[in-house]
Write a structure and sequence with these properties.
The protein contains 7 helices and 9 strands; from the N terminus they run ββαββααααβββαβαβ. It is of the alpha+beta class and about 200 residues long. The longest helix has 28 residues, at about 80-105. The model is unreliable at about 105-120 (pLDDT under 50).
């Protein structure tokens, strides 16, 4: 006997199928238990799950698990990581450059380089446009003098700001003999915070 199968309510049917072919179609997912079947001796269409010939076999049928669509909301972190690495390298290079630039503003390591790049000027001429800062370290104690006044490091910016306002001088002549480079940099930063445009280093 041959069988015809159609999807539920569909006007189109597939005929000439054996019972085995019908069950294989159900197992392959081509047909569902609610799809309709009719044999040569049947007068009407009946669902596979209700037809005496197929009801028992179809009852054991387990439909395949539904395929879940891919979650398109998943965030791809790779571009964000790439951008973060580029920014990190940029900040590292910028910070390194600023550190080197401060070092380059200090006296060189050899007297030959200092003599080649330093500008020589009479002290009287220099005093006309600079504020003199003198710092020394004696017996572990560091002193800082702005012109003839002793100043603490934490008050240096305020004191220099007063000198800038009263004298309108925007340059500093720094005499720092025998002191740590870290202190020289702190004094230069304080001068910059007071509005000093340029710090000149005195060479003796």
């Amino acid at each position: 006997m041959t069988w015809s199968v159609r999807h539920q309510g569909s006007p189109k049917a597939v005929g000439g199928l054996s019972a085995t072919a019908v069950l294989e179609g159900v197992a392959d997912g081509q047909w569902e238990p609610i799809d309709e079947v009719r044999g040569e001796a049947d007068h009407q269409w009946r669902p596979l799950e209700l037809h005496p010939k197929f009801a028992e076999a179809v009852a054991e049928y387990e439909p395949p698990a539904p395929v879940e669509p891919e979650d398109e909301s998943r965030l791809d972190m790779n571009p964000m990581i790439d951008v973060s690495l580029v920014l990190l390298i940029f900040f590292i290079l910028t910070t390194t450059y600023e550190t080197i630039r401060k070092v380059l503003d200090m006296p060189g390591v050899t007297a030959t380089k200092l003599d080649a790049g330093a500008r020589k000027a009479a002290m009287e001429k220099v005093k006309e446009f600079t504020i003199r800062i003198t710092t020394r370290t004696d017996a572990g104690k560091t002193t800082i003098r702005v012109e003839d006044q002793d100043v603490q490091l934490d008050a240096l910016t305020l004191k220099l700001g007063q000198f800038v306002k009263s004298s309108n001088k925007k340059q500093v002549l720094l005499d720092a003999q025998g002191v740590e480079w870290g202190l020289v940099m702190q004094i230069m930063d304080a001068a910059k915070g007071a509005g000093i445009e340029k710090t000149l280093l005195l060479k003796k």
